[in-house]
Amino acid sequence: MRRRRFLQLAGALAAAPAWGAPARYERGLLWRVSAKGKASHVFGTIHDADPRVAELPAPASEVLERSKSLLLEFVPSPYTRERFLEAALLPDGQTLAQLIGAEDFAQVREQLAPIGLAPEVLARLKPWGALINLRHSGSAEAPPIEDTLLARARGRRMVVEQIEGVEEQIFTFDECPMETQVALLRHSLAHRAELVELEEATIGAYLQRDLAAIWRLRQAFGARYPEVAGHLAVMTKRVVRDRSVVMAYRMQRELRRGDAFVAVGALHLYGDQGVLALLGQDGYRAARVY
Fold first, then answer.
1. How far is CA 9 from the centre of its chain?
2. Closest Cα to residue 89, out of 118, 57, 59?
3. What is the mean pLDDT of residues 64-90?
4. pLDDT in tens, 212-234
5. Where are the domains of the chain?
6. 185 and 103 Cβ atoms separated by less than 8 Å
7. What angle do CA 109, 139, 14 make, to 5 degrees?
8. 173 closest CA partner among 182, 163, 162, 186
9. More confident position, 218 or 269
10. Distance separating alpha carbons of residues 242 and 7, to the nearest angstrom
11. Residue 277 and residue 274: Cα distance in Å, rounded?
12. In what order do the strands lie in the sheet with 260-265?
């Protein structure tokens, strides 16, 4: 069973639409963050299996070689993969088809077939468990950039830390209202082709290091469908806004030590509620490197 793709939670987080983001920290993927004579770097990733974003840009690669520690959003393990899959299942006796209807469930079954989940597992997925796996353009897959960062750090025997634990990542989705989960899953099924186009445009904006463009793409998509605007706002708050606050707080332990390489989803960098702005409130200065 191909559980690795199922655990690409960060990919879903990066895809969450945003609303009314202020124009700050609009452009740039690599930032030098400093305070009290200590400097580290924060790099924005895109959690996608597309080969075009699988390579670490040269400026970021050079910084990584000089860094002493690596801080990722999350470091997976065999246990956390199993735990995440377990948490994405409905209680015994409940099925996804009961929640979304037989017709929509048939679409889920068809679209998630490449993942290779057993039929009994697929039948019991929570709506969010299905939702986070619908994003796939059909292009050739490559290991996510986090895998590359982790391999290089371990090869150099760098200190490796994570910002969130598996239970926190599960909580992000599990506590999302069921009506929001169902509404967004149905919306995604009904607008599959547009979501594929959105993913392609997002990759293009990322390659241009244009954070503001990524936000605008999602605003434009959401604005076309006011019937799910409230649900999109709920999900955005949970997976982007709230988590950015936690990230900005927890990464400061490594930032105080200096020479850290911190990698988080690029959307967490943007705007007055992003991690760079939040770090600024705590006395850190951020300067764009790339």
1. 6
2. 118
3. 97
4. 999 999 889 889 999 999 999 99
5. 3-288
6. no
7. 75
8. 182
9. 269
10. 20
11. 6
12. 159-162, 69-72, 260-265, 38-45, 30-35, 285-288
Q: Please classify residue 289 by burial: count the beta carbons closer than 10 Å to its beta carbon, then call 0-12 exposed, 13-18 middle and 19+ buried.
A: middle
CA distances from 123 to 62, 99, 134, 176, 253 (A): 46, 11, 15, 20, 42
Which residue, among 224, 228, 252, 257, has the nearest Cα to 131 in the 3D structure? 228
- Give ∠ CA 80-177-263 in degrees, rounded to 5: 40
Lookup: tokens for 35? 């305070």
More confident residue, 164 or 12: 164
Token pair for 124: 């019991």
- DSSP-assigned letters across all residues of 138-207: SPPP---HHHHHHHHHHHTT-EEEESS-HHHHHHHHHTS-HHHHHHHHHHHHHTHHHHHHHHHHHHHHHH
Tokens of 212: 């503001």
Residue type, 125: L
Cβ 136 vs Cβ 114: under 8 Å = yes
pLDDT at 250: 98
Flag whether pLDDT at 136 surpasses 70: no
DSSP state letters, the chain = --HHHHT-HHHHHHH----S--SSS-B-SEEEEEETTEEEEEEEE-----GGGSSPPHHHHHHHHH-SEEEES----HHHHHHHHHHTBPPTT--HHHHH-HHHHHHHHHHTGGG---HHHHHTB-HHHHHTT----SPPP---HHHHHHHHHHHTT-EEEESS-HHHHHHHHHTS-HHHHHHHHHHHHHTHHHHHHHHHHHHHHHHTTBHHHHHHHHHHHHHT-GGGHHHHHHHHIIIIIHHHHHHHHHTHHHHHH--EEEEEEGGGTSSTTSHHHHHHHTT-EEEE--
Task: Encode pLDDT of 270-286 as tens digits.
Answer: 999 999 999 999 999 99
